[in-house]
Amino acid sequence: MFAEALFFGFAVLSVLGAIGLVLFRHPMNGAMSLVVTMISLAGLYALLSAKLIFALQLIVYAGAIMSLVLFIIMFLNIQDSDLPTEKGRWLYQLGGIIVILPIASFLIKIVKSIPGSEATIVGSGFGGVKEVGLVLFQDWLLPFEIVSILLLVALVGAVVLAGKRRMGK
Amino acid sequence: MNDFLSLLPLLIISSGAIILMLLAAFEKSRLETASYLSMGFFAVAFFVQLLVGCGPTIVIFNNVFNGMLAASNFTQAASLIILACGFFTAMTTHSYFKVNHFSSLEFYAIMMFGACGMLLLTLSQELITSFIALEIMSLAIYVLVGYNRSNVKAAEAVLKYLMLGAFAGAFFTMGTALIYGGVKSTKFVEIGAFCAANSATAPLILGGTFFIFVALLFKAAAFPFHAWVVDVYDGASTPVTGFMATALKTAIFTVFANFLAQNSGLHGSWVTFLFYISVLTMFGGNLIAIGQSNLKRMLAASGIVHSGYLLIALVAISTEHFTGSVIAYYLAAYAAGTLGMFAALAYLGGEGEKRCTFDDFKGLAKVRPYSAAAITVFLLSMAGIPPTAGFMGKFYVITSAIAADHMALAILGIVSSILSMWYYLRLIINMYFHKTEDTFETKESVFATACTFILVFCVFAIGIYPIVI
Fold first, then answer.
1. What ipTM was assigned to the predicted interfaces of this complex?
2. CA distance B79 to B73
3. Which of B20, B77, B115, B243 qualifies as a cystine partner to B86, CB 3.0-4.6 A?
């Protein structure tokens, strides 16, 4: 019962945070509401007894990445006068809602069709560093390896798109 | 050993990409060297892939990778197409960057990383691996699209593509999550087995496949998700557009077919959906293409139409004896024509791509008869006139549709093919039956020109191949 209440609390908070991210005008407010989403997602992971993911979510996403984002926004020192005037903003939002509604109702239908099941206690080791590591390096070795290429591409790409460029001779 | 050999082209390309990336850090290395090196790596990987052969489907390193990669004749053909696309694009860019000076050495490294993602995508037999491969490919392509930082159109293109591509990626992961919820596995084989044992229309499977299809159709530029294509293709530099239009489409349709062919129930439950999507894609694409005055935009729109034909082939695949030969053949034919067209545009476009509309190519045949003839061959191949590869490709697609009892689809395919003549012939008429207004000077374009004429040969060779064999 208590876990269920927690689940609903975190779920609602994470969705509200995401909505805030989209709707706030100032980037700072948007980033802060993203922090809310990240933290409530961590709560959801904890409810699923995914210990390692819970810790990583807090440290990496809510901690490191968000502070980097906030740092950059503060660095740019954005005032209200710097923000573009968005005419017809409501119209776009209305359009977005019209597009999202059928998808949302579709998803709700799918979720409703899932048969309910009793929550069972998982083993004490579940979701720990050792268990996740074993699964990651035994069953999911290939995705783990190719993520390295993905990160490399992202790194080189960021340097190419944003960095100083030595022109080809 | 066989496992390792099947993986070898991928390894060659990824190590080549890393070598080029490291090379880019040195002051002394020159852009030309990088383009020769990437041509070399693509050529070696191509011949290795050709020599390895494949035969029956093999699961690569089943114990270590847990059946996440598998090679078959279909994936071999797809990776041959991708590697050839990479090779010809490297050739084209060599000339293109002689007149358009915005490149740096990392260009080739990123292109090869993109090819690496595409090869992984063709081999992958599992949704998470597919997702990562898809993102490797997409990230590389985003960067290539926005490579020319001083071009506003390129900046617009990369922003649009990045935003929409991120949505597609999100849909893919959501679909994966739903399917995992239903099947308790993300492997194609297990999904197929689940669909065979249970119904393929279980809500979780249906929703999951729907979202995955949304992502794949977006990348393949099929009808409701085609809006980005024209702007992105127009904004990217010509050789990059050629690479995107061909290699990326090959990778996407390979994984699409691999996924769909797992089970007849899964395929059957989506036939109607794909039927309408393919019809709308063909006619929507034609409608857009007819209205264009810019060549790259027209080619982008015609790429949408070709996606429609490939969707016909997807509707018509047989899940019991899946070979994917029709799809692979059509992709090869399409790739040869489109790449050749973009190679020709790359060197005829001149500095800053100043010749880009139908009107700019008026009277090309009088000044440069050979180039005009080559372009004519590519256009006729895309339109599907015998004896080019494009004709045979369309022939196979349409006969496969008839064999699978989709007469309506076959007829609509032919109608759309006739409609598409309008914009292909328009350029040919402009080239041959108008007065020359331009001198069409080009400088230092040996490689792109060579590439164009090799591809003319390829168009005929691919067209004759099934008759000879």
1. 0.90
2. 10
3. B115
Residues belonging to chain B: 469
Nearest CA to B113 among A162, A144, A149? Answer: A149
Cβ-proximal residues to B48 (8 Å cutoff; 6+ apart), any chain: B5, B8, B9, B12
From the CA of A154, how many Å to the nearest CA of chain B? 7
Interface of A with B (CB under 8 A): 106-107, 109-110, 113-114, 139-143, 146-147, 149-150, 152-154, 156-157, 159-161, 165-169
Whether A48 is in a domain gets the answer yes
Contacts of B164 in chain A (CB under 8 A): none
Helix (H, G, I), strand (E, B), or coil: what is residue B247? helix
Give per-residue burial for B283-300: e unless 16+ CB within 10 Å, then b. Answer: bbbbebbeebeebbbbbb
pLDDT, tens only, B186-235: 999 999 999 888 877 788 888 999 999 999 999 998 888 888 899 999 99
Which of B108, B139, B273, B444 to mutate to test binding with chain A, by most A CBs within 10 Å of its CB?
B139
Q: Number of structural domains, chain A? A: 1
Question: At A149, which CATH number?
Answer: 1.20.120.1200
CB within 8 Å: A157 and B140? yes
CB A127 within 8 A of CB A52: yes
Residue B58 is inside which H or E element, if any?
strand B58-59
Suggest the residue from A111, A146, A161 to mutate for an interface test with chain B (most B CBs closer than 10 A).
Answer: A146
Residue A116 lies in a domain: yes
Element (H, E) at B59: strand B58-59
Q: State the residue range of the domain holding A122.
A: 2-162
Give pLDDT tens digits for B339-377. Answer: 999 999 988 888 878 888 888 888 888 888 899 999 999
CB B23 within 8 A of CB B105: yes
Size of the A and B interface in Cβ pairs below 8 Å: 97
Tokens 């082209």, residue?
B9
In angstroms, rounded to a whole number, what is the distance separating the alpha carbons of residues B30 and B34? Answer: 7
In this structure, is the dihedral angle defined by the CA atoms of residues B154, B157, B159 and B165, taken in order, positive or negative?
A: negative
